[in-house]
Write a structure and sequence with these properties.
- The chain is mainly α.
- It is 71% helix and 0% strand.
- The chain contains 14 helices and no strands.
- The longest helix is centred in the N-terminal third of the chain and has 32 residues.
Length: 280
């Protein structure tokens, strides 16, 4: 009778320590999110009670107050700007990344580096120039104005990220499609894009996050009509006091769409983040 193989004791202990360390790190990372969510279901008095109450009767009053005000419109503005920016960034940036990946001319990397330079300076360095330009063009407090500025900075991210994925795809697959009679556009749609789905999902998430979470440009370029959710939370910070319950509820509502979107494409996200890594 063959006995089942059992790992050595040292290996079992080491594996248990690694799992315990991972569990501790996960708890540390998730604790701020847990604290934010549980505060959104507490009253102002319960939120500041010391020691904090672990077991309490949840209330939806904070969410009712938030959803009855201007915050709903701000959420809609964030959804419109982030979704539109993500779609336009992919439509414009993915073909550009493919062209740079397959092109063979001396200045292709110089062009890519020039595009990446738009992400090197801090946003505040462009704040005054953009404000003056938008004021002259009457784009202040408009959704399409925010979409344009988000698109400007997301395009470089899309081009650089997707070019890396296209460089990792074997050109022989596209050459086989050419031999079968497919054109460049048909090969790109039917061969290259399906193979780069993990990269598209990863890039889409990053584009959506950068647009959805933007605070600086929305603060200086929007007033009321185009106000986005991250800036709208500031309205709950009054001179007399900060409404922490409403702030927590608003933060939870802002975080929820991103979490749902990430979970929906998590399979492609993991593949995209590990693309190019040495596996073995």
């Amino acid at each position: 009778m063959v006995r089942p193989h059992r790992p050595p004791l040292a290996r079992t202990i080491r594996r248990g320590l690694v799992l315990a360390l991972v569990a501790i790190l996960i708890l540390i990372v998730l604790f701020p999110f847990y604290w934010l969510v549980q505060m959104s279901f507490k009253t102002e008095r319960e939120a500041f009670q010391m020691p904090p109450q672990i077991v309490f009767v949840p209330t939806l009053q904070n969410y009712v107050s938030v959803l009855q005000g201007k915050f709903v419109r701000a959420l809609g503005n964030s959804a419109i700007t982030a979704t539109t920016t993500t779609v336009l960034s992919l439509l414009l940036g993915v073909p550009a990344a493919y062209a740079l990946s397959r092109a063979r001319f001396g200045s292709d990397w110089a062009i890519s580096l020039w595009m990446l330079a738009t992400r090197m300076a801090p946003p505040i360095a462009f704040g005054i120039p953009f404000f003056l330009i938008y004021k002259n063009l009457e784009l202040i407090d408009t959704l399409h104005g925010l979409i344009i500025i988000y698109l400007t900075f997301n395009l470089s991210l899309v081009i650089w990220t997707m070019r890396t994925f296209f460089d990792g795809l074997p050109v022989s697959l596209e050459e086989a499609a050419y031999i079968d009679g497919a054109g460049v556009f048909e090969t790109f749609l039917r061969v290259t894009l399906p193979l780069s789905t993990p990269g598209l999902a990863t890039t889409a998430i990053f584009c959506f996050l950068l647009s959805w979470n933007d605070f600086f440009y929305s603060l200086i370029l929007a007033r009321s009509d185009a106000l986005t959710a991250p800036v709208a939370i500031v309205n709950f910070m009054n001179y007399e006091s900060w409404e922490y319950g409403k702030i927590s509820a608003g933060g939870t509502l802002i975080m929820l769409p991103v979490v749902v979107f990430s979970l929906a494409v998590k399979k492609y996200l993991v593949s995209g983040l590990t693309a190019g890594a040495i596996k073995g």
